[in-house]
Specification:
The protein is α+β, with helices and mostly antiparallel strands. Helices cover about 50% and strands about 10% of the residues. The longest helix is centred in the last third of the chain and has 39 residues. It starts with 10 loop residues before the first helix and ends in a 9-residue tail after the last strand.
């Protein structure tokens, strides 16, 4: 398809050409690279702690840094001081490991799957340590450089829609923003940022065009290399569908399918070559579906500023809690016993486990489709408000889509699809360390509109100082484009609202059937004994529950407890606080406290409970005065009609209540 011409000499594409990169852009870019690197270095130098997840898995990086190759060792304690070094959080002081402490005959074995999935990150760390010695502070200059590269690529991306002055100002915001700098401490998560922002730039350049076929192929190869080498974190793979979509359908000019298909083939080939070690490890197992199940829990829902119906989908942000849910589902519903978790602390990486985690996630999708859709929309709204506009950022995004659509529908449609995809994606596990690079997108939209308004209304002087911006011409807009500018954004809002309403009706009916099935399920009444506790509390313990046939093993198992509470008038209490208590050897105990408001009818509180030698369910605790509110304690046995054991509270009038998650007003309290 061809570009649209506007009034004025050379049309609006000529104005775009006037905004192309020149010598001054390269100078600004290099200054931003240097300034960003210095800002990152001084920021990290002053930080006392590094929130470096899974540091204990970085033994292969230590071995590589000490010249022993990329291998793991059988026993960390065989090397004096290594365990302390791997667990140390302080980076302000040069806490180091002496390679001389590695015995010459230390037993080694190949890296596990997690380590092979992070071979690029651990390999980079190991190579740095070969030069500097093995200490965490040596990584600060490297991470500072990655921050500088993020700022540089952000400037290039902003230049696709802004003049030099506005683009530099936005890049400067990224340079000093706490939302980016704070993430530098998250080495494992920040390191993907320059690659993701660089790929935003590649996608924008492909859509800008028109390029000669040769240049398009080179851009495709560059995108593939960026995607493959960026597999320091495998979630960078999210860009692959957008790059392919852009190469096939969203380049300007006449559609040439042979060249487009060749560009896709070269992109995938470059990606495969650049990322081969990680891609091979990913084929042998990963954490994708384990992460998805974890992301369904309440901590992430709170970040999205959503509130539950009379149920929830998990109450902990914990790998061990997710593992217990997946293993319990595997055994009680699928009839598959997973390998014992004692064999490897990362059993959730292996294919057999991931297959079950995938099945469990799909069960949630089937039963709770409206909740998943609401999470995606909540993610979009939350990230949109993380840019310069702190309230109503989605209106800025829609206005930018409208302006692009006015110029050419191809640009508006790509911005709508790609922007919506990237901004909804973080809902899978909504946390600042996962979505902070996406803030570049609402920043771009704000700068695009601001620059266009200044240039369009400022005349020749503004064009001279701001620089012409190609996708928002200062002289005129294409005739007949107004209807496109109105229809596409408005239509997308109507479609999304209609889809969400339909999904909620479907989920309401499905959960109504599911909860009624819970009430109809034959149950086993449990006897209990009261064990007095300090501070006026009592624990209700059971002789025959949970029914864990292998409770002496480390394999987590799942059962389902039903607590029936009397009406408020019968026990003289308006609210009962139930604490599901666990005895645990782990740092992540599963103990949960639930406050239940009593009504005029009996209230049922159903809670999945888990047992293993390291995290064993003990019983239900509550104040002594509230024991008389317990009408019955029962066990719900598993069955083919109960694929999910959800925490559920069915109080008076639950059938008329919304059985789906709803949006809460106000800003979302996003954790880092």
């Amino acid at each position: 398809m061809k570009g649209t011409s506007g009034a004025g000499s050379g049309g609006w594409w000529a104005l775009w050409r006037a905004g192309s990169w020149g010598g001054s852009d390269w100078a600004v870019g290099l200054l931003l690279l240097l300034a960003g690197s210095l800002a990152g270095f001084f920021y990290l130098r002053d930080q006392a702690n590094a929130a470096f997840f899974w540091k204990f898995e970085f033994v292969p990086a230590v071995m590589l840094g000490c010249g022993h190759g990329f291998v793991d060792i059988d026993r960390v304690d065989d090397a004096p001081g290594l365990r302390e070094f791997m667990q140390r959080q302080v980076v302000r002081k040069v806490h180091s490991f002496d390679c001389a402490n590695l015995p010459a005959d230390v037993a080694v074995h190949p890296p596990n799957n997690y380590q092979r999935l992070h071979v690029y990150l651990m390999g980079l760390v190991g190579l740095v340590w070969q030069v500097t010695g093995v200490h965490w502070a040596a990584l600060n200059p490297v991470m500072a450089l990655f921050h500088g590269l993020t700022v540089l690529f952000a400037y290039g991306f902003f230049r696709l829609g802004c003049g030099r002055l506005v683009a530099a100002a936005l890049a400067g915001w990224v340079l000093v923003s706490s939302q980016f700098l704070w993430q530098l401490k998250m080495y494992r998560d920040y390191i993907k940022a320059p690659f993701l922002v660089g790929l935003f730039l590649v996608i924008g350049l492909l859509a800008r065009g028109p390029w000669s076929p040769r240049r398009t192929l080179w851009l495709a190869v560059a995108g593939g290399v960026l995607t493959g080498t960026g597999l320091f974190r495998v979630d960078l793979n999210i860009v692959i569908p957008v790059v392919i979509l852009t190469l096939l359908f969203f380049q300007p000019g006449d559609w040439q399918w042979r060249w487009n298909l060749l560009a896709v083939a070269l992109y995938l080939a470059a990606y495969g070559v650049a990322g081969y070690p990680v891609i091979r490890a990913l084929a042998e197992g990963g954490t994708n579906h384990h992460v998805l199940v974890t992301g369904l829990g309440n901590p992430y829902m709170d970040n999205l500023h959503l509130e539950n119906g009379p149920y929830d989908t998990g109450y902990m942000d914990s790998d061990h809690y997710t593992e217990s849910r997946v293993r319990g589902y595997s055994e009680r519903y699928l009839g598959r016993l997973q390998p014992p978790s004692a064999d490897d602390p990362n059993t959730w990486i292996f294919p057999a486990y991931q297959e079950v985690a995938r099945a469990l996630f799909l069960e949630h999708m089937k039963l709770l489709p409206a909740d998943l859709l609401a999470r995606g929309l909540a993610s979009l709204l939350a990230v949109a408000d993380r840019g310069l506009v702190k309230r109503g950022g989605v209106a800025v995004l829609l206005a930018a889509v409208a302006a692009l659509t006015w110029l050419e529908w191809r640009l508006g449609l790509l911005a709508l699809l790609a922007g919506g995809y990237f901004l909804c994606y973080p809902a899978l596990q909504f946390n600042m360390r996962h979505f902070f690079p996406m803030i570049i997108l609402p920043l771009w939209a704000t700068g695009f509109l601001l620059n266009g308004a200044l240039v369009w209304g400022g005349g020749a002087l503004a064009r001279r100082w701001l620089g012409a911006a190609g996708w928002f011409p200062p002289l005129s807009l294409p005739a007949g484009g107004l209807w496109r500018a109105l229809v596409l954004p408005a239509g997308s809002v109507v479609v999304l609202a209609g889809t969400l309403w339909t999904a909620r009706q479907w989920q309401q009916a499905g959960l109504l059937r599911y909860f009624e099935a819970l009430d109809r399920t034959p149950i086993q009444t449990l006897g209990w004994r009261e064990v007095p506790l300090p501070s006026g509390m009592v624990r209700l313990e059971f002789d025959d529950f949970p029914r864990f046939p292998r409770a002496v093993t480390r394999n987590p198992q799942e059962d389902y407890l039903k607590v029936t509470l009397t009406p408020a008038a019968d026990c003289g209490q308006q609210q009962v606080t139930l604490t599901y208590r666990y005895a645990t050897e782990a740092t992540e105990g599963f103990t949960r406290r639930v406050s239940v408001t009593l009504g005029q009818e009996p209230t049922r509180q159903m809670q999945p409970v888990y047992g293993a030698t390291w995290n064993r369910f003990l019983g239900v605790e509550l104040p002594v005065a509230q024991v008389r509110c317990i009408a019955a304690l029962q066990r719900i046995p598993p069955g083919p009609h109960l694929p999910l054991f959800l925490p559920v509270t069915l109080a008076s009038g639950w059938r008329e209540a919304p059985l789906y998650q709803q949006f809460r007003p106000g800003p979302a309290p996003v954790s880092h």
